[in-house]
């Protein structure tokens, strides 16, 4: 059913302008534990210079206990100051031991629930403890300014208030488990460009604002970003690090560089406290372009292996057939540094002093003590994860994140639908758990039940036909197509030179033929193709790295590589949005082949998991792809209702990859009851929107998302997620992608990306320019309806506002509603000060039974009523603001007039 809009209601209210409010009025929270500062100072006085350096410079952990985490801080063993392990995310954690895949960060944001965000933070904290990790490199609290940014999906959306609230909640949840959180990336890391220019008001009010909330939640560390910000690099920018972060915001923790983000030893003088990674293994592919500056030892004269851009491109990304191939690897964030002066030389020439080193080390030691690590409250052993408790949180988050974008009486599925239902697409048979691989947990594939199986268990009498259409696994290349030296099969050669003939390349647990972990194995021979065409070749491995070559050219390779900071472990979810149906990593490439023989080489080498090697060579012929597509259309044509699952890994920009739009069009043409389920984490074009009856956005769901998707489709859960970004009708509607303003793009003008839209980010830009979005910020439908009334606004004791309303569930089923408070721009605006037409100031999520009413009070922090005065260099209270409350940025039902 469609959500009905309530009538507009106006209420009179007057807000008087108040005096200037200081930094102390920002939302702050006292950390659960404070450090013993006298103890910290006593320890520092006992340390040698080198021991202090071991608190501000990363190092290499003993390989026998290394957990393949992102970073390691040596500590000071002589004084019982423990080392620190740091693990990447979000979401989840990336170490040698696979952790559970949580709902994508953008999905967490879509819950509009600080409670859900805190629960996810607790999952991160519990996993960190179980995996022996001390510092989690999250939350990711940059702003979704440019949807073409490769890591925009990792943010909490386009609004600084929402991002700050959700990020702070995750900090509280994680640190309550006894692990440190590191908020990232400070600041301006919101674009594929890296030479960023932002005016001071916008910098304070939009891009730095979420970090204020993280500091208020007691975050232990802040990671500075790769990019330049207003000239200097972010990790060596005195204005952003010393003036804004440490002085204005009052941050007491330590600033850590992003890995390789240090370009001068003098960054320590500008507010940086810790260099990461600080050291790299001799065979690391990153060693050739990441310099280490906080080095006190004599120069290392060992020759560095030259950078292999092609190999590195295979590590950092590898397109699948549905995605564009891209334009090669961009190392713009790692420029060649002219000044290679190290700490050893800087101390000699006096450009860095020991006092500066001591001050930085003190910040790190302060946090080590605050978390009780000096007293043994640290755990570096790996123990069993609390899988079931974590799974319950992940499933609920995926349910709460579900955004119903369109519903013409299509959902939830009824009896007629379930008696004749077609489920189409790989995302029906498998769960789109993680979308694109990166600095996040690889997930537990054994828990990743697809929506199809989950729906069958939830509705056991349903009559369901499944058609994959785009087969992510393929079929083994038949023995008849493989030969060597005129003999059947491929020739296998192991690292000892032993040779064996294999009829097919199919060694997996599922057929009982996996190989022992035994170094490098190579298969060589001839692939004979029956007819010319585009073949999709699949290199499928686990427990090993792999490479596929045809006719002497590298066709594909796995993402794991020896010497990387994540331990050279090949994960099943690393190279595709979906692993194989039996849980292998899946490198899929489209290859144009002529009929006849082609030379083929497949190489596999053990990763560091010490698990048996699984490797398989599959393909999908042009004929099989056409047959799969025809089966999907036929299934839809025969069914009462068709549910099509579409997906993206982030590319191409603002579009579904491959021929998924065509698939939806064709299915909608043969079935009038077509529903689309989307597993995307950024907006995409929807040219078929008017042809389908329903659209459900499920994000990248995490391990438990199959169950969550089935629950929403069946109506066991009423969707109540809200869009944390504006969904435009076209890419050029976004401020960062407006062709009239090339300076805003990642490419920029003259090498500079300027955020010339100022504070008007996301929905603010659409409001200012009067652009009609496809779906507005904060939008989401429900299976029930709600009524808003009784708006009251009162001045709070902290000089903020308490906004109260009554919400009633006027429908027939239980559901959650997400009321949102917006502030209009003041009518009287000081000259030269920017104000968005309206800004999100508060929100809540409330659960209501049918017919139930609840009074909801939402607090507007004083900071939301202030602006940053560039002239006065302080926060100033604005003039009177109109208060609006509604269910999205474009559906404001109640207004408190000036």
TrEMBL record:
Keywords: Hydrolase, Signal. It comes from the Bacteria. Residues 457-637 form the PA14 domain. PROSITE patterns: PA14. InterPro entries: Cellulose_deg_GH3, Fn3-like, GH, Glyco_hydro_3_C, Glyco_hydro_3_C_sf, Glyco_hydro_3_N, Glyco_hydro_3_N_sf, Ig-like_fold. GO terms for biological process: carbohydrate metabolic process. One of its GO terms (molecular function) is hydrolase activity, hydrolyzing O-glycosyl compounds. Residues 1-29 form the signal peptide. Belongs to the glycosyl hydrolase 3 family. This is Glycoside hydrolase family 3 C-terminal domain-containing protein. The lineage of its organism: Bacteria, Pseudomonadati, Acidobacteriota, Terriglobia, Terriglobales.
